[in-house]
Amino acid sequence: MSAEGFREELLSAGLLADGGLAGVYHRSFEFERVAVAVGAYVSRAGRGEASRRLYLGPVQARTTLEGSGYVTSFPNLVGVVSSFAGTESDVPAFLEELEAGVDWTDRLAPTDIALCSAGCHPIYPLVAGTTLPDAGERVEVQTWCFRHEPSPDPARMQTFRQHEFVYLGSADGAVDHRDRWLEQGRELLGALGLEVSAVVANDPFFGRTGRLLAANQRTKELKFELVAPISSATPGAISSANYHEDHFGDAFDIRTADGQAAHTACIGFGLERIALSLFLRHGLRDEAWPSEVRTRLALDVDEEVR
Amino acid sequence: MSAEGFREELLSAGLLADGGLAGVYHRSFEFERVAVAVGAYVSRAGRGEASRRLYLGPVQARTTLEGSGYVTSFPNLVGVVSSFAGTESDVPAFLEELEAGVDWTDRLAPTDIALCSAGCHPIYPLVAGTTLPDAGERVEVQTWCFRHEPSPDPARMQTFRQHEFVYLGSADGAVDHRDRWLEQGRELLGALGLEVSAVVANDPFFGRTGRLLAANQRTKELKFELVAPISSATPGAISSANYHEDHFGDAFDIRTADGQAAHTACIGFGLERIALSLFLRHGLRDEAWPSEVRTRLALDVDEEVR
C-alpha cells in the first residue's frame, strides 16, 4: 500500500475529507473519536505526574515562535496569522480591488499571533523568568500544531495534535524523563498492536547551518523517535522524545534552584499519526478492531457519550 | 461581576491560562472537559439527523474565505496564514536580519491557507457544483474558528469552537431547520440551568455598507441568537441560528433538484462561551455543579476516561 493509495482509501471510507489543499483535511467523527481516545490513553498512563495540565492553541503569541528559536531553525514551516491592516476608510478601495480580482492579500499585515509550532513551546513563556522547584516541574499539554509543508501523504498533515509530557529542571532529570517516557511510549503504542521501534533522529532544521545542527543532534543522541507504519509500510515518527539541553531554559530565563538555566525534555505523541497507524494496522472500521485495542482506548465507553 | 473580574477569577482558579495576548488562552483539562462535554451534549440531541458529520479545521483553504464572502463582509476579522517565502539561498540574509532585530515578518508571504472563519463555511466547497437530494442535506460539524478581535473579555476569545447543525436545500426547509433548532437549542441550554433568551441579531458586518447589510439582516429576521450571561451579568450570544437565504448556494453553485440555488441555514453552539456561562452560573468547580447538570453533560462518564 502506498501513502497515496491509503489516502484514497481514507477519503473513500469517509474517515477523512479533502480540505481542498495538500495536507489539509476534515476528520469524520469516527476518526476524531480514535484520535481523542489516543490522547486520553497516553494521558491516563501519565496520570498524577504533571503539576499542570493544559490544552493549548491552535494559536500562540508570535514572540513564542521567535523566543523558542523556531523561526531561526525552521523558517520554512512557520505560520504567522495575517489580517486586514486597514481602517474603515480603506474598505471601499479594498472592496473595489476584491471586485476587480486584484490580489487582496497585499492588504494583509502580520499580526502578533502565530500558529503553534510544537506542543511544548507555549509552555516556556508561562514559567519565563522564574526559578523552578527543586524537583523540577512536569507539565502535560495537548496542542494543535501547524507546519507549512504541503504533502500528498496523509501522515504529513499541515495541522495536527501533539499530546506531550514536558519536564523542566536538572540535566539528569531531563534525560531521565526523556528515557523513561521513550520506554513507556514504546510499551503503550506496542500494546495497541503497532509495530514500534525507537530510533535516533533529528529535527528537519532548514538550510546549510541546519544540516550541522541536525548532525550535532544525532551525535549527541538528543532526539529519539518511535516509528511505525503510518500510511504505508515505510515507518514514520508517531512519537518523539527530546532532550533540549538548556536551550529553552536559556531562551526563556527559566532557572533551577542553583541558578543555572533549566534543562528541559519532552515526549510528544502525534494523535493523528497514531490514529492513522491504527487504521492502517487494524482496518478502517474501528468497530472491527481487536477488542483488547478497543478496551485499552476505552472506545466503547467513549461511544456512549459522543 | 465584571468581565475583567471574571477573567481574573478564571486565571486564578487555573481554568484558563494567559496566552500572552488579549483573547488568547490556554485551557485547563477541567475547562476543556466541560467544553467537549457541551459539544457531545448538543451532538446527542441531534443524533441521527445529519448524513455527514465532520470535525473541521483549524485551517481551511483561503479560497473558502473568499468564496463565502467573508473577506468582503468581515475583512477586519480574517486570519490568513503567512509563511517564509524564501528558498535556502535566502536563509543566511534572513538569519542576519533576525540577529540584527530587523522585522523578519517582511520575509513572510500569505499562503493559500486561512484560519476557519465560521463553523459552516468549509462545508460548502465539499458540495460545490452538485445537486442536492430532494430532502436536502444535513451536516453536523465542529470547527475551530478564528476572529482577529483582541479583547480583555474572556467571552471574546480569538480562537473558539462552534458545534453546528447545517441544512442545505429548499427555502422552507432552511427556515424550518433554523426555527426548530432555535427552539431545541433554547431547551438544551435552559436545561443546563442557563438563563437563555432568543433575540433577533445581526452579524458585525464591517464599514458603512456593512451597516446596511446588518439592518437588512435584522429586518428580514435572518439571524437569531440565544443569549445568556457569559462573563458578566450582561447577556451575550452562546448560540446563533441563521438563515442564509441562497447566499452560499449561489456562491458555491449548490443546487436543489429544481435547479435553483440551494438555501442554507445553520445553528452554531459556541463551546467556549457555553462553558464560561456554566462556570459563571454554577461556580468554578464543576464537581460542585448540580447533579442534574453534570448528568446531562455526562461529566462523570467522561471523567472515567480522561
Question: Could you list some keywords that capture this structure?
Answer:
homodimer; BirA Bifunctional Protein, domain 2; globular; 7-stranded mixed β-sheet; 306 residues; alpha+beta; 12 helices; 27% strand
Explained architecture:
- Two copies of one chain form a homodimer.
- With 306 residues, chain A is α+β, with helices and mostly antiparallel strands.
- Chain A has two domains: 3-78 and 117-305, 2-Layer Sandwich (BirA Bifunctional Protein, domain 2), CATH 3.30.930; 83-114, no CATH class.
- Chain A has helices spanning 3-12, 29-45, 62-67, 70-73, 91-100, 123-126, 171-190, 207-219, 247-251, 271-282, 291-296, 299-305; strands at residues 16-21, 24-28, 52-56, 59-61, 80-84, 108-115, 137-146, 159-169, 197-201, 223-229, 235-243, 263-270.
- In chain A, helix 2 crosses helix 10 (271-282).
- The longest helix of chain A has 20 residues, at 171-190.
- Chain A is globular and about 60 Å long.
- Strand 3 (52-56) of chain A pairs antiparallel with strand 2 (24-28) of chain B, so a sheet runs across the interface.
